[in-house]
């Protein structure tokens, strides 16, 4: 065996939270040497995801992913985190995959390696590899299963005495319980409840307002939570819950709400979230399918929400509200929804409560930073159990930039309203 | 309770780091100008609690950043980004002579960092902090594999970085005290070296015969390391601490089998019977037991046993014959070993022999004997039982905490650069000769 000493590859920090940046450095290469830096992740669903960039070392034999340009690969240009956000299933994978971490107690493991050359880099073994851990849970966070008063979910409590502000966290209509964002919010100092509201087999009658109000109060009444500092965080259908609770509930008063890819469709008929949603999905079966066999819900949904009797009365919201949406959202007319919410709140004299972030070329699934972008993924229709490919929209680079920018702004919005005392800050 | 002060936010980044990585401790949202205490608490494996703290004043934005703001007083003062770790000491009321050494390096050291209202100096257990976070400090980077290499007398802990390799190899030798420690080998593997921690004190041979192992033991370890498919045969170094230095020098100079690319000697001496067996080298230093002094606190001071540095060449390892680069690390306040005097003599011997270009000496004022990886709490004296001695006695190691801690930080950086240069570098040095 040739005893050639390999290059030195490092990822710093080697263990980090999923929203923290890292520095990938390759040293000890020959000068001016073409190499490919590649990341590989074996998901819980047993699929392989990868990203890679083509680089050329400088004359001290160094490639710095944070400082150098990638000349090609799954990302180009100066992209310190490109090895994460540009990940996609390896060639030959089944189509329509989505990457989600279900077990947040363990880290996402990513192997970063450096290979010789650009074209055909996969043909040889890597020159060096390192493993990096990406965590949703900071050390010391407690994870507690909640199954009380009919409410199901998972509660995450930061370390320390508290008391802490609280957050009710809800994902979208895909169902199931996703804990990743709630765990990450707890890592930023919020007692967070990831609420399971579509994934279980109970009768949909249970999922009227009362369910969400009870969930909210479980947080509010927790001994380590500041009762007047509990907010709501929702994505897609979850944001519908957020706006309707804020607008209509007489029981709970959220301190602030964050709505990603906002949905304000709230027809009068149907008494529960799920029955309203069922109505929608029946109509969405008429949705357009494009030439790639991807289902586009946006246009059909646009028809529903143009009828004012189908809209939640968002003018009744009395708390600070942050709307985040992508302008290339193909799943829901969130651009029009955001405009509509702004108009209604303005008409009700509540404009000062609203902040909006709208990102060009960004799709529906706006997730925490450095998560891979999915333009379209398989989705199981709740009613028919039919598997379709839903088009979410967005182009990878702008969508990833949006995820990074929006997360930072969401965190500062939450910090402002849930941590700081408003009296100390000047109103702009 | 003041509601606003309840919302103080404390964060430490990274929350999971390697033992030699720096972190940034940040307090935000405090009342501007308020007095706060930041405290670290660690419970080590033997159940003892260690703490460190600093007194701070929040600035006009209500922020304290430990990498920029000074601690006014506490277990450390001034701008000390890592003070909460290196100034850790046993909590009041602990038994004396404690030393922090991690045995299980598969799990992290957990430190709870909290912020308290006011400038507190004691009674923390009875106070409720405003905020607290947990920080993990790891000796092993993700992907580093630790296992036992079976082919020597006793299985030796071996740490292999992730990746195809081949990696340069390292033989890691600690000093004479008690159980084997693996943490330095694990940390070095986290920096790309295939590291074997050699337990030469508790080998099967020693347990059965009561005698020290000899050269063959280390040569076998070297061979085993060389033969590992992911180790670079021609790039192996040895790192020895305290008595481990004596063995390192003996092997580097006299062994026909061991050919080192580099050697690192920490807090050690070259005074030993030339080509004596390891047993003889050990007995030699005990020969002068009568020269042991005691401090005013009744701590054993060992450093005089090898003094004065002999002029008789048969009593010193012949460093003039060294053929590999040597890095010597010396604490000038070392009370256990005359490392500084030895280093000066080594320098002279190598200058006379014409190989002093191989030598680098790093000499640290007010640093003691126990030069450990960075941010390890400084131990000026501790209860220690050495090989062949029946009981534990208090030994004085020396060093002043602030300077010793700075020395550990600097020494580690320089050790890593030295190992990198000599084990990873120089594919073709002439390529750079015009630069």
From TrEMBL, chain A:
MF (Gene Ontology): fatty acyl-CoA hydrolase activity
Boundaries of every BAAT/Acyl-CoA thioester hydrolase C-terminal domain copy: 208-419
Residue ranges annotated for the Acyl-CoA thioester hydrolase/bile acid-CoA amino acid N-acetyltransferase domain, each copy included: 19-148
Pfam families: BAAT_C, Bile_Hydr_Trans
GO BP terms: acyl-CoA metabolic process; fatty acid metabolic process
Active site: 236, 329, 364
Record family assignment: Belongs to the C/M/P thioester hydrolase family.
PANTHER family associated with the record: ACYL-COA THIOESTERASE 17-RELATED, ACYL-COENZYME A THIOESTERASE-RELATED
Protein name: Acyl-CoA thioesterase 16
Species the sequence originates in: Oreochromis aureus (Israeli tilapia)
Gene behind the chain: LOC116336459
UniProtKB/TrEMBL annotation, chain B:
Domain of life from the UniProt record: Eukaryota
Pfam family, one: Bile_Hydr_Trans
Matches recorded under SUPFAM superfamilies: alpha/beta-Hydrolases
Domain Acyl-CoA thioester hydrolase/bile acid-CoA amino acid N-acetyltransferase: 20-150
An annotated GO BP: acyl-CoA metabolic process
Residues the record marks as active site: 242 (charge relay system), 334 (charge relay system), 369 (charge relay system)
Domain BAAT/Acyl-CoA thioester hydrolase C-terminal: 213-424
Gene3D superfamilies in UniProt: Acyl-CoA thioester hydrolase/BAAT N-terminal domain, alpha/beta hydrolase
UniProt GO molecular function: fatty acyl-CoA hydrolase activity
InterPro entries linked to this entry: AB_hydrolase_fold (IPR029058), Acyl-CoA_thioEstase_long-chain (IPR016662), BAAT_C (IPR014940), Thio_Ohase/aa_AcTrfase (IPR006862), Thio_Ohase/BAAT_N (IPR042490)
Family of the protein in this entry: Belongs to the C/M/P thioester hydrolase family.
Name used for this protein in its record: Acyl-CoA thioesterase 19
Source organism per UniProt: Oreochromis aureus
Lineage, highest ranks first: Eukaryota, Metazoa, Chordata, Craniata, Vertebrata
